[in-house]
Amino acid sequence: MRLAILPTAVGFLVSVAAPWNVFAQSRDLLLRDWTPRSQMVVEKTEILEPRFPVIDIHNHLGDLDKAEEHLAEMDKAGVWKCVSLDARSAGDFYKEHLRVSHSVAKERFVLFFRPDFSKIDEPDFGRREAEKLEEAVRMGARGLKIAKSLGLTIKDRTGRLVPVDDPRLDPIWAKCGELGIPVMIHVSDPKAFFAPLDRFNERWDALHLRPDWLFYGDRFPSKEELLEQRNRVIARHPETIFIGAHFGNLPEELHQVAKWLDVYPNFYVDIDARMGELGRQPYTARRFMIHYQDRILFGTDTPPNAEAYRVYYRFLETDDEYFDPNPAHPYQGRWMVYGLYLPDEVLEKIYNKNALRIFAKFRGAE
């Protein structure tokens, strides 16, 4: 009798214990390992090529061994031109970058010069670096890139942070206006990077993977202060075009970006690596892009990859709902995005016409 009952009893105990065992295992799951799969069944529109030829105004192609690979991915994705922001002044790397890129496809790669701020303490730094920029332009460079380290981490010999609006840089900004070339300027980062790393931080997991991206605390200026420094430069140099990287680095507050565009006619923004912010507010973002359609440029900040480009096309061209933006750019949070379904007239301007209009301001170097 006991032998007959035992399997039934064991089975009952297992059936009762199993859910608790699974629950116990789930309690041990680390956030970094949690990759939930959406149960939503929504339309997925496959877009292999963009509606219009694309100029990617924001990319990094400094790995010169991959120039042919980058070009092949651009061809697969319908990308006409790609801007590399890696033509560094330091060590005269810009010369090699120009040589390699032009040998592969001169009309397809556009290079922006990046100043060497390690020389900030040298006499006449701004004038000397402006002269070097002019030389780079004669060789084929067509813009200037400012990385987020300016204002945030770069210090002079006194140990003081070099602000974005440091007067020693004025000759560089002025030279860009004189030559008719744009400045791609990256100042600050997502709002979450300047907030406490606590349970309220929406980028908690990304910042634990990349702790060097956290700029909260007394060692760093506030995000607001950095953006004010940038805006003073834009106001001081009205003849120079400034492109605010990452949607002016405030896509979380589109109303504020709108004010800047209204106040500074020489200010533009690009969309690179901020699909995660824009795609969470599709109604507001769509209205914004239609209203400011002449001031927005396409960019990715992701080395040329056809699949990554196609996520951007889906975002801009379709009304698809609740899809993952991460294939286009990593570390963009755990949220999903919604397509903007922009009109053709707006798409063409964002994809290429606005960039072409800025490049047409080029006056060249003597």
Give a verbal description of the structure:
Helix 5 links the parallel strand 4 and strand 5 (183-185). Helix 2 (67-77) runs parallel beside helix 12 and helix 4 packs parallel to helix 5. The strands form two sheets. This protein has a five-stranded parallel beta sheet. Strands 1-2-3 form a three-stranded parallel beta sheet, sandwiched between helices. It contains 13 helices and eight strands. It is globular. It starts with a helix and ends in a 7-residue tail after the last helix. It is of the alpha/beta class. Residues 1-10 have low confidence and may be disordered. It has one domain (53-308, 345-359): TIM Barrel.
SSE layout:
Elements: H1 2-27, E1 54-59, H2 67-77, E2 79-88, H3 93-105, E3 109-114, H4 125-139, E4 144-146, H5 170-179, E5 183-185, H6 204-209, H7 223-236, E6 242-244, H8 245-248, H9 254-263, E7 267-270, H10 275-278, H11 282-291, E8 296-297, H12 306-317, H13 344-359
Parallel strand pairs: 1-2, 2-3, 4-5, 5-6, 6-7, 7-8
Helix pairs in contact: 2-12, 4-5
